[in-house]
Design brief:
Helix content: 40-55%
Distance between the termini: 52 Å
Shape: flat
Strand content: under 5%
Largest sheet: none
Radius of gyration: 21 Å
Order of helices and strands: HHHHHH
């Protein structure tokens, strides 16, 4: 029951109306094989949960055994490889641009966004002995 509550507390969740309008048209659906037991809406929200929390796929809190983490991962992997996510991103940018909600004032075009780390200095290379560690600190 605890895992079910964690999924309900998910802050990044797409509502069904928005999913059907903006996301579903860009996701590919298999034509062969058995019909999926879980809707694409639920599968997509499970994927968002993993991406948002950073949890392992096997730790995905699936309610009442409605599907398996392997099935959710398979959808994610397929959409990642077939360009569904790319199409979704491109369409999202186009919609934001049309509605004039796209703010490009802060944009790192080359992908760099360095975050300053706080805390103690850490060695890049792990050392085996304390003598080597003390010598590298200097």
């Amino acid at each position: 029951m605890k895992k079910h509550n964690e999924l309900n507390k998910l802050t990044i969740k797409v509502y069904r109306k928005d999913f059907n309008r903006y996301i579903k048209p860009h996701l590919s659906v298999g034509e062969r094989g058995p019909q999926s037991k879980v809707s694409l809406y639920k599968t997509f929200n499970y994927i968002l949960y993993v991406l948002h929390t950073g949890c392992q796929w096997a730790a995905l809190p699936i309610r009442k055994k409605e599907t398996s983490w392997q099935a959710v991962y398979t959808h994610h992997n397929h959409w990642s490889k077939d360009g569904s996510y790319d199409a979704l991103l491109e369409h999202s940018v186009e919609v934001l641009k049309e509605k004039e909600h796209l703010d490009l004032s802060i944009l790192h075009g080359d992908g760099t966004n360095t975050v300053a780390k706080k805390g103690e200095k850490k060695l890049v290379i792990p050392v085996i002995s304390i003598k080597k560690a003390k010598r590298n600190w200097r």
